[in-house]
Amino acid sequence: MTKQPTAIAPGQQIGKYRLAKLLGKGTSGAVYRALDTFSAKEVALKIIDPEVFRDPEFGAERHAQFLSEASLAGMLIHPHIVSILDAVVLRDTGYIAMELITGDDLSQHIAPDTLLPVPEVIEIGFNCCGALEYTSRAGIIHCDIKPANIMIAEGTDVRITDFGAAFLRESKVVRSAAMGSPHYMSPEQIAGEELTIQSDMYSLGVVLYELLTGQLPFAPGHLDDLVQKILTQDPEPPSGVRPGLSPAFDPVVLRALNKKPGQRYSTWAEFATALAELSRQVQAPEVIPDSEKLNALNRVEALAPLSEKELWEIAKVGRWSRVRAHDVILREDERGSEFFFLATGSAKVVRRKRLLNVLGEGEFFGEMAFILGGKQPRQASVVATKALLLAEFTPEAVARISSGAQLQLTRALARNLVERLTLANTRLTG
Question: What residue segments make up the domains of the chain, in order of their start?
Fold first, then answer.
C-alpha cells in the first residue's frame, strides 16, 4: 500500500513561501495555497514528501519526474497551461510554485450525475487542443493527460497542469510508460513504443469520451484486461452510451481513439477544427463560443504577430454579439469612444444616406472615435448588410490587456485607418 505523505501545518515557511491552506494530497506530496512573501502574491505550492525520493524502487524515477516538471519553470506561457513560477529540487525533497487556480479539476465532472453541459465539454476540448499544440511546438509531449490534470479556472477556461511525466523530445531522458495513468494511455504508450503528439490526442480523446458519457471507453477492471482492451478492442460510440447524445460526436471522438497513431488527427489544429465545427452544431444561436472568437481573430493579418495568449486576452475583453442584417450599429453625429471588429458578415458605411464604404470580414471600424477619446461625434453610420458577428471594445476593456497586446491592436487599428484613408483619397482623385 502506498504511504500517504505527511501534511505540513499551515503557517510554516518553505523557502520564500508561507503555507496558508492544504489544497490536496496525493501519493507523492501535497499542494498548498501559499503566499510568496517577496511579491505578496498567492500561489499553489506543490511539495514532494521526502519519503518519495528515498523509495528504493521508484525514488530515482520520481526524482527525475519532478525534476522534469521543475525544468519547465518559466518556459510554458499559454492561457490554458498552469504557469510554473518557481521550482527548487533537492536530493531528498523539492517544491514547485504554480499559478493558483481555485476551481475544480475535470475529475469532478466524469460521473453521470455531475457531467458538464455538452457545449462546454467541446469548448474545453478545443482549449486543450490549443494548449497541447503550443507544448508540441516546444518539443513537449505531456504523457499524462487525464481529468485530474485539467483545472477549471472559470467556465470553459481551463489549465493543463502536471507536466511531471512530460517527454522532451530534445532530451535524452525517456520516460517510462508506467508513469502515465493506465485508463488514459494510448496503445503505443502501453506497448512502450515511441510517443508522438498523437499519443496525447488519444488521452484527450479518452477525457472527452468520459466527460460526454460519464464512463471510460473501457470499463475499469484488472490491469491486464484493461491493457488488452486498449490494445485490441474498439470502444462503443459515445452516442451509444449516452442516450440523446448526437451521433455527430462519434467520428470526432473515435478518430482520436484510433489504435493507430497515423489514423488520428495529423495536427492539433485539425483536431481543434473538428471540435469547433461540433461546437457550432450544439451551441444555442445566441451563444458565441470561444473557438469562434479565436478563429475570427486568427484570420486578421495585422494580428498575426500576437501570441495565442495575447489573442485570448483580446477575445475575452471584447463584447461579442450577433447582429441581424439591416440593424444599425453606429449612427452619425452620435458620440462614443468604442471601436468594433467585424468578425463575419458585411456592413455599409453611409453619411447623409450616401454610401461611403463597404466593410468586410476581419475589418475594424470606429477607430477614430477610440483614438480621439470620443471627443468628436461619429462622422458616419454603419449598417449591417448581412447577419454578422461583432466585437465591441471600450477603452476601459483595452486597458485591461497586456501592453504587448495593446500595442499590436493599436497598430492594427492604425493600419486599418490608413488603408481606409488611402482608399478614400483614391476615390476622390480618381
Answer: 13-98, 106-283, 294-429
The 8-class DSSP code of residue 4 comes to: P
What is the CATH architecture of 294-429? Sandwich (2.60)
Give ∠ CA 245-246-252 in degrees, rounded to 5: 110
Is residue 3 a contact partner of residue 30, using CB atoms and an 8 Å limit?
A: no
| All residues at 6 or more sequence positions from 84 whose CB lies less than 8 Å from its CB, including other chains | 69, 70, 72, 73, 74, 75, 76, 96, 97, 98, 99, 163
Q: Which of 327, 426, 415, 401 is nearest to 363 (CA)?
A: 415
| Report field, pTM of the whole predicted structure over 0.85 | no
Look at residue 305 and give its three-state secondary structure.
coil
pLDDT digits (tens, 9 = 90+) for 245-258: 999 999 999 999 99
CA distance 200 to 169: 14
Q: What are phi and psi of 315, to 5 degrees?
A: -60, -40
Tell me the pLDDT tens digit for each residue of 345-365: 999 999 998 998 899 999 999
**Up-side HSE of residue 41: CA atoms within 13 Å toward CB?**
11
CATH placement of domain 13-98: 3.30.200.20
CA distance 223 to 228: 9
How much is the pLDDT for 255?
A: 98
Catalytic residues: 144
For all residues of the chain together, what is the average pLDDT? 87
- The residue written with cell numbers 498552469 in the block is 82
Count of CA atoms in the C-beta half-sphere (13 A) of 88: 11
Q: Which residues of 293-304 are buried (b: 16+ CB within 10 A; e: fewer)?
A: bbbbbeebebbe
